[in-house]
Design goal:
heterodimer, A: 253 residues, alpha+beta, OB fold (Dihydrolipoamide Acetyltransferase, E2P), de novo design (two linked rop proteins), 2 domains, 5-stranded mixed beta barrel, 8 helices, 40% helix, elongated, B: 196 residues, alpha/beta, Helicase, Ruva Protein, domain 3, Dna Topoisomerase Vi A Subunit, Chain: A, domain 2, 4-stranded parallel beta sheet, two-stranded antiparallel sheet
């Protein structure tokens, strides 16, 4: 057994038995891991309120090679993103990020995805309401990219041919991004209009200015991202948090 | 599938019961007198057949509406909103609350596919819109999902001329500061009260 201390974010927490919890953690040193927090539900548990969804802290894990469930011996909380709970839209975006991480991040060290998730949750908490949609789109696209599935926009996703620097592009979700004219003719594609292309390029660029998206365009981008995640990462799995973020049921009532 | 295997499989579906425990329970039941096992089976069937959600508040009951909703001594102007029926008995047993309840049947949880349409939020709004409700106490759990659910309901109730309150969070009675985590302590500090 090895004791590993690592920054971690709680992605899910399930009751286990009368007093314990099983948590899924996005860790910086070990990737996404499951662990049992024994006694976490006892009134005087050393975990206290630490194992709340999306809490950020430092986890101590007793790990053993080839074991799927580790033992969480401590979780020193550094931040509970309470701001996310104050707005269902923020929480929905955060849940979609957590779901992508939970389902698709590796169970091996992957610091880039952990860092991105941590920063994204912090950003979603403080983003002004008017920019929330764009920040949610950017952080989700960035997470998809960091996990190795960035859509191709500068060269053809099939044959690598450079694409014209501006104008509309043939886009094929299945092929992983934009296509050159020849590949689009063979494999089919829908047109990504020039403004949508510019917006998507800006969303994928963490240092770029956020695009201005009206409700209709934001909805189109959400649908595109959702389709892309479902095809490249989903493999038929249900993604309820992504669906929730896409449908926005909290805006209906 | 054999009868033994069938029972193990069904017991293992229960929360907190793994396959080993299910096996132990099955073999324990097999060693009991037939009438005792029969009473257990009848109790299970009885619960399944007779217990329903109260049409008014969503609490579990054998009569419609439930005893709490029928009780004329309870104040119908104060509604305590809880996540699950189990919370009704906890609050009712442990406090002097004499209002009525509304059970949501869960909490908003996108990761579990639970959205507003899966909860009894529309019936809550109907109850409020029928009039006579003065205060809604949001007693969802102090977890991230419970907080989001409370926020969402509070937004829906805003502008309806009600007092909407949330259960306080803080130090447990009989607790020890040394064992309290920073998050709880921060809540307790923010919600401190003047004494004397």
């Amino acid at each position: 057994m090895t004791l590993v201390t690592t920054p971690a974010i709680v992605l899910s927490a399930l009751r286990y038995g009368e007093t314990s919890k099983i948590v899924r953690l996005a860790t910086r040193e070990l990737g996404v891991q499951s662990a049992i927090a024994k006694g976490a539900l006892r009134p005087r548990s050393r975990f206290g309120a630490a194992l709340q969804l999306l809490s950020d802290g430092v986890a101590q894990l007793l790990t053993k090679e080839h074991r799927e469930l580790h033992v969480l011996t401590a979780f020193d909380i550094t931040r509970v993103p309470v701001g996310l709970a104050a707005d269902v839209g923020r929480y929905a975006a955060a849940s979609a990020l957590a779901e992508v991480m939970l389902r698709f991040a590796p169970a091996d060290p992957h610091a880039a995805s952990y860092d991105l998730l941590r920063d994204a949750l912090g950003l979603l908490e403080v983003t002004p309401p008017a920019a929330l949609d764009q920040i949610a789109l950017r952080t989700l696209w960035r997470l998809v990219s960091v996990l190795g599935f960035a859509p191709a926009l500068e060269s053809c996703a099939r044959d690598g041919q450079p694409l014209p620097p501006d104008g509309a592009l043939p886009f094929n979700t299945r092929e992983g991004g934009a296509l050159c004219a020849a590949c689009a003719a063979r494999h089919g594609a829908s047109s990504l209009p020039p403004d949508a292309r510019a917006d998507l390029t800006a969303l994928l660029d963490p240092a770029g200015e956020l695009p201005l998206l009206d409700q209709r365009h934001a909805a189109s981008h959400r649908r595109l991202l959702s389709r892309y995640i479902r095809f490249h990462l989903g493999e038929g799995a249900e993604l309820p948090a992504l669906e929730f973020w896409l449908r926005r049921p909290w805006t209906v009532a | 599938m054999s009868a033994i295997e069938e029972l193990i499989t069904e017991l293992a579906r229960l929360p907190g019961i793994g396959r080993k425990t299910a096996q132990r329970l099955t073999f324990h039941l097999l060693q009991q007198p037939a009438e005792q096992v029969g009473r257990l089976a009848a109790a299970l069937t009885g619960v399944s057949e007779r217990v329903r959600a109260c049409t008014e508040c969503g609490n579990l009951t054998e009569e419609q509406p439930c005893a709490i909703c029928r009780d004329p001594r309870r104040d119908p102007a104060v509604l305590c909103v809880v996540e699950e029926p189990s919370a009704v008995s906890v609050v009712d047993r442990a406090t002097e609350f004499r209002g009525r309840y509304h059970v949501l049947g869960g909490r908003l949880s996108p990761l579990d596919g639970v959205g507003p349409e899966s909860l009894r939020i529309a019936p809550l709004l109907e109850r409020v819109d029928r009039g006579g409700v003065r205060e809604v106490i949001l007693a969802t759990n102090p977890s991230m999902e419970g907080e989001v659910t409370a926020t969402y309901i509070q937004q829906l109730l805003a502008g309806r001329g009600l007092r909407v309150t949330r259960l306080a969070r803080g130090l447990p009675v009989g607790g020890d500061l040394e064992y309290v985590d920073g998050v709880t302590l921060q809540h307790a500090l923010s919600a401190r009260q003047e004494i004397g």
